[in-house]
Write a structure and sequence with these properties.
heterodimer; A: alpha+beta; Arc Repressor Mutant, subunit A; 3 domains; 9-stranded mixed β-sheet; 3-stranded antiparallel β-sheet; 15 helices; 39% helix; B: alpha/beta; Amidase signature (AS) enzymes; 3-stranded mixed β-sheet; 36% helix; globular
């Protein structure tokens, strides 16, 4: 494998292969109730406690569209710069399974609610645009549990009928890294919009991954395989890597690739055939006669557009312009909405005389380190944005040094204490009184006369020794800048 | 007591309101007659004991402002009734007891009516003779071994046989109008979207519609007034201004223009049907209305279109009966085996036939040629009616191409059975209201019906035309009580 020019290629003898990837992401709509019923959607509830007669497909029960879910899908479409279709149709996808109570899934086949759009990825070698083919609304199925009883399968219908958005990308992705960036960007956009919580552990975001390979430079697509239902970015990347290599090996051996659906075995790190094209289900899609076509007016869409918050791309642009941040810094701050929120709150609380650069360094440095070590999200940060801003201001106005600030920060973590109080209580205030520092330095020079002479004779590295002595004598509280200035003058 | 069951719904309500009869008197009378009528096999489940309790309760504190004060009523077993077994005439729902009530029946009980029991029907409403029911065929009160029609055969038999004052059926391709025609009763299929489908076991969702069946047009109008309502629980329910159909009922149809579609003069139609139709045209004229020859050019495609659309939807609607959640389950080696056994044993032959037809026409490779084409033709059929209604206010046709046939006569010839619906299916495909009224007898003395088709939401108009014609026809049903020993 080579990553020259950050191009992801698979190398065999004299041949190089490019990998072509398209994703079908299933994102659970953030909604209190299901797509066609009023049952709750809370994660982790006791089995079969969030099931209505509609979800369990009792005779004579009918689906009624949840307007909120429709709004969420349209908002997501807007976030993907996509065309919103004024008319979309719900179809039935027919197949039998124990956790599919209706015997069909209500989905959108020919006429999805959202059409073509795009997502911009920030890759190390620049931006990359990934096309969105469509976004449609559909119901989730229930869950079959096979390992509770040796004889029987149990079925939990809590998920049955939960609204999903299926977001289909164009085959524009070319590497596991791009897939990583793409999923993170989708997740970021949806979290900004509040349309999906993006929680992969809880299954709110999963994907079917389509992989094909072709000789480098070829314009034609190879035969693709679809890897079903992968639920973490890491697994997606591993599955792609395995699958691409498998396909390349087949080609190199002169064999053909069968179009098929495959499963990724996370334990063995390999994909396995699930069913071939010949065995593919005939889903007998047809418009659901229980539901009328979904019509949304331009006015309805416009109203939702007014509701759209600043999205990551725009926020990034603004951060760069308004706060003079680098593209890299801006990316880190905007990629997660909660980080962006925290940062903006810190900026607001810092007041007029603010040092944004310093705040950014402290957020991405000290704060991220603490969150990481404690396994917390920034929304659960033990230090509030308000106190964080005060700390940055204390550094900025010279009340404490950066070094002391680290001590203060550690004390703040326990109970979100006000840094001002900590500084006062612990007497950590920086010594910035020139007279006091001069006296302190005079004493050090006096005590180390020989070294002072050596310095004057040209042994310049001894300057650091005097700074160290001064800091030590002040208990670390001396203003380092002043110490420098005074030392230069006195020596 | 016996003459109570001979009274019309309107008379019974009047007598209860005037305190000449109590709900208990009326309920008892219909229960007695129902119990004596087991040979008709009209009921799948009776609820007589609690019906009597409810009647007594009603009489203790009668609310006479209701539209159906203390009126007992049996309903087709396709309507889900809370805590009362609901089978849809199928083995697969043989043990199914809903925890909920259909909107249509809820509307009925809310107006003071009392459930007598659940009436037999073709399995999942698929049939035209009530011979596909898992619970056996229904006898017509008209004659022994005569079919009452279907799929609302139990309902037709129960109304004609006076086991219930009125009833409700469902009509997907003629399942109210054809049995009404076969039993000398009145049956209305309302405009699609008039009556909620919530809680009705689905056959073909885009065609199914509940409707009233009665001894006369006025009773039918009153029951339609009760059952029709806008229901947010049914996404295809339509919010339009509903008339007080019984209050606004009038026999004045002077100046109305009634279309006579030439395409309904089908090959091989018995002369007595043609004669009946001519008689109907004369009655229309006698009422001061005008008849106009019209054309509905795509009529001949209606039946094949219907037998693609309806099975397609049914094949999907019936997928939920899989033995997993409720109803009948056969033991199987594994999931697929369980499905196959459950559905093979749980569904009867006609239902299986339609599931197979429906699965076939939706299959990839056949979808465009069948389902999609059928949808296009359906649109053309609707357009035919739209064109016609630029010139006429309603359309008059025979209800069926023949009178009732003998039990077993057509069971081995599904196509001949399907032809029963030739005059009724276009109305479902176009989503229009249609009413069948008894208009005469054939040479064997069996009833024959005429159908009046209206514009969408124009139930009042066709009820008025039916009401005016009913007066002129003065039909008398020949019920000999042959089944009562």
């Amino acid at each position: 494998m080579s990553k020259k020019d950050s191009e992801y290629l698979i190398n065999r003898k004299d041949n190089q292969y490019e990998v072509v990837i398209g994703l079908e992401v299933h994102a659970q709509v953030l909604s209190k109730s299901k797509l066609f019923s009023t049952s709750a959607t809370k994660f982790g509830a006791e089995p079969n406690t969030q099931v209505s007669l509609v979800d369990a497909a009792f005779p004579g029960m009918l689906p009624v569209i949840n307007e909120f879910c429709v709004k969420q899908a349209i908002k997501t479409g807007i976030g993907l710069s996509a065309k919103i279709n004024n008319r979309s149709v719900f179809d039935r996808k027919n197949y039998f399974y124990a956790d599919l109570p209706q015997g069909y899934q209500i989905s959108q086949f020919k006429d999805p609610i959202v059409g073509e759009g795009k997502v911009i990825l920030d890759m190390p070698n620049g931006q990359k645009e990934v096309g969105i083919e469509r976004l449609h609304l559909e119901q989730d199925a229930g869950k079959s549990i096979h390992d509770l009883d040796p004889q029987n399968t149990f079925v939990d219908l809590n998920r049955s009928g939960v609204a999903l958005m299926e977001i289909v990308s164009k085959p524009d992705l070319r590497s596991p890294d791009e897939v990583n960036a793409y999923i993170k960007k989708l997740r970021s956009i949806m979290r900004y919009l509040g349309t999906c919580d993006g929680n992969m552990q809880e299954g709110s975001l999963r994907a079917d991954v389509n992989v094909s390979v072709r000789p480098k430079g070829s314009k034609e697509f190879g035969t693709r395989c679809e890897i079903k239902n992968v639920n973490s970015i890491k697994f997606m990347q591993m599955a792609i890597e395995y699958e691409a290599n498998r396909q390349v090996d087949l080609i190199e051996e002169g064999k053909t690739i069968d179009q098929e659906t495959r499963l990724f075995d996370t334990k063995k790190n390999e994909t396995r055939s699930m069913r071939s094209k010949e065995d593919a289900h005939d889903y007998r899609y047809f418009p659901d006669p229980d539901l009328l076509p979904l019509e949304v007016s331009e006015k309805f869409i416009e109203e939702l557009k007014n509701d759209i918050p600043e999205l990551p791309d725009d926020k990034k642009k603004r951060f760069i312009e308004e706060f003079k941040l680098s593209s890299y810094e801006a990316n880190i701050l905007v990629s997660d909405i909660d980080t962006a929120k925290y940062f903006e709150e810190v900026v607001a609380k810092m007041g007029k005389n603010k040092d944004i650069k310093l705040a950014v360094n402290w957020i991405t440095g000290e704060l991220f380190a603490v969150l990481n070590s404690k396994g917390l999200e920034i929304s659960q940060s033990p230090v509030s944005a308000k106190n964080f801003a005060i700390l940055i201001n204390l550094i900025k106005n010279g009340t404490i040094s950066g070094k002391i600030a680290k001590t203060v920060f550690e004390l703040m973590i326990d109970g979100d204490k006000d840094p001002q109080t900590i500084v006062e209580e612990k007497g950590l205030k920086q010594q910035s009184d020139p007279k006091a520092l001069e006296a302190l330095i005079d004493k050090i020079i006096n005590d180390n006369r020989e070294k002072a002479i050596e310095y004057k004779q040209g042994k310049e590295k001894l300057f650091g020794f005097f700074v160290g002595q001064a800091m030590k004598a002040s208990g670390g509280k001396a203003n380092p800048q002043l110490i420098n200035e005074i030392l230069k003058k006195k020596l | 007591m016996s003459d109570i069951t001979k009274q019309s719904l309107t008379e019974l309500i009047e007598n209860i309101k005037n305190k000449k009869l109590s709900s208990t008197d009326v309920t008892k009378a219909f229960i007695d007659r129902s119990e004596k009528s087991e040979e008709l096999n009209a009921y799948i489940t009776n609820d007589f004991t609690s019906a009597l309790d409810k009647a007594k309760k009603f009489d203790q504190k009668p609310n006479l402002d209701l539209k159906l004060p203390g009126i007992p009523m049996a309903v087709k077993d396709l309507f889900c009734t809370k805590n009362i077994k609901t089978t849809a005439g199928s083995k697969i729902l043989n043990n199914f007891v809903p925890t909920y009530e259909s909107t249509v029946t809820e509307n009925i009980w809310n107006e003071g009516a009392i459930l007598l029991g659940k009436l037999n029907c073709d399995e999942f409403a698929m049939g035209s003779s009530n011979e596909t029911s898992f619970f056996g065929n229904v006898q017509s009160p008209i004659d022994k071994n005569l079919v009452p029609g279907g799929s609302s055969g139990g309902s037709a038999s129960a109304v004609a046989g006076q086991l219930t004052p009125v009833t409700i059926g469902t009509d997907t391709g003629g399942s109210i109008r054809q049995p009404a025609s076969f039993t000398g009763t009145v049956g209305l299929k309302p405009t699609y979207g008039s009556c909620s489908r919530y809680g009705i076991v689905a056959f073909a969702s885009s065609l199914d519609q509940a409707g009233p069946m009665a001894q006369n047009v006025r009773d039918c109008a009153l029951l339609q007034e009760v059952i029709s309502s806008y229901d947010p629980k049914d996404s295809t329910s339509i919010n339009f201004k509903r008339n007080h159909y019984s209050k606004e009922l009038t026999n004045n149809i002077k100046g109305k223009k009634i279309g006579i579609p030439k395409e309904y003069r089908v090959d091989g139609m018995p002369k007595e049907i043609e004669d009946l139709w001519q008689k109907g045209i004369q009655y229309i004229k006698d009422c001061g209305a005008e008849t106009i020859d019209i054309s509905l050019p795509n009529t001949s495609y209606a039946l094949p279109t219907y037998y693609i659309v309806a099975p397609a939807e049914a094949s999907s609607n019936l997928a939920r009966y899989d033995g997993v959640k409720y109803g009948f389950r056969a033991k199987g080696e594994n999931l697929i085996d369980m499905y196959e056994k459950t559905r093979s044993e749980g569904f009867g032959a006609e239902v299986q036939r339609r599931i197979m037809i429906g699965t076939y026409v939706l299959s990839s490779g056949y979808y465009d040629a069948y389902y999609l084409k059928a949808q296009k033709v359906r649109k053309l059929i609707k357009n035919d009616f739209d064109e016609a209604y630029k010139k006429v206010d309603a359309i008059l046709t025979p209800s069926t191409p023949s009178s009732a046939f003998k039990i077993g006569e057509k069971t081995n010839d599904p196509v001949s059975m399907y032809l029963n619906d030739i005059f009724t299916v276009p109305v479902n495909l176009a989503g229009l209201p249609g009413i069948s009224i008894p208009a005469g007898h054939d040479s064997k003395g069996y009833p024959l019906g005429l159908q009046i088709i209206g514009k969408a939401f124009d139930e009042q108009n066709i009820l008025n035309i039916a009401y005016a014609m009913e007066e002129k026809i003065n039909f008398k049903n020949k019920i000999t009580d042959w089944w009562i020993k």
